[in-house]
User: Fold this.
Amino acid sequence: MPRPRLPARLPLDPYVLALLATVGLAALLPARGPAATVADGASTAAVALLFFLYGARLSTREALDGLRHWRLHLTVLACTFLLFPALGLAARFLVPTLLTQPLYNGLLFLCLVPSTVQSSIAFTSIARGNVPAAICAGSFSSLAGIVVTPLLAGALLGGDTGGFSADSLLKIVVQLLLPFLLGQTLRRWVGGFLTRHKKVLGLVDRGSILLVVYAAFSAGMAAGVWHRVSLPRLGALMAVEAVLLAAMLLVTWYGAGRLGFGRADRIAIQFAGSKKSLAAGLPMASVLFGAQASLAVLPLMLFHQMQLMVCAALARRRARDPQEGDGAQLPDRSVAEVSSRPQHPAARGR
Assistant:
């Protein structure tokens, strides 16, 4: 197999630039009055649409087939929903010295969202790891996150997300869980259509998330939340996130080795277990945080770009590692099949 190559430069993800432009638009022209009501309603519909598409695109058969590698999937889930939150809780001592309370809440929320799918697959493939395992691990994480992330957020963030009030739980069920289950139910009839039009629907996915971001940041501008953020605080947040990412990359790689996984599986665990999904986190934050969602998603947006740049460089380095004879080199057919499968929207660079 030819060795995959990455460009010498690692430019900003174009989608991150679109997100930043949307934030700028919300800062200059925030939705107010009747326009805010329309934007909020459209954002709610966009969240429901996103999770409907998640459900319609997630292959139940593929997920069930992957259960035979249950140790790897449990390891990724433990990194995503146990180790990440533990590190987030440990960072509480940084308040108020380095981080403000709202920024810390966003950092902790970042630690609670599920892993990515497509970017984990792409980096695992570049590094010559276990691509099918990365597909299943990312899918399981996304599926579990629909339930686990809101519950963890309510338990660990408490009043900052509205806790376990009947209203917040109803929003989670109506906007997240029911559309996902409807998508799974209708997958038999709409799955082919989504596969044939995945490029167009990918634009719908991203456009929906941009709408959610605009509504969230408009509400934040109206509430005056950005007056509480300074450039030194943002710099401190980026430094903390760099340490968090480095810690997770080290733990997933060396921890997987200590657990007896081979090189190919360790690569899948490292890329699936150290990453966070922007696409899943943004709509969840809009449901859980309300007017405070703009600050809650800021750490996630910064971490997203950071993980893409670091993992791209790391995948290129792993591709140059000598093979260990443990099955790290996948057959050409496996990668080809993976690239032809419908991709989960939660991961396109997120």
Q: What stands out?
A: Confidence is low (pLDDT under 50) at residues 1-8, 325-350.
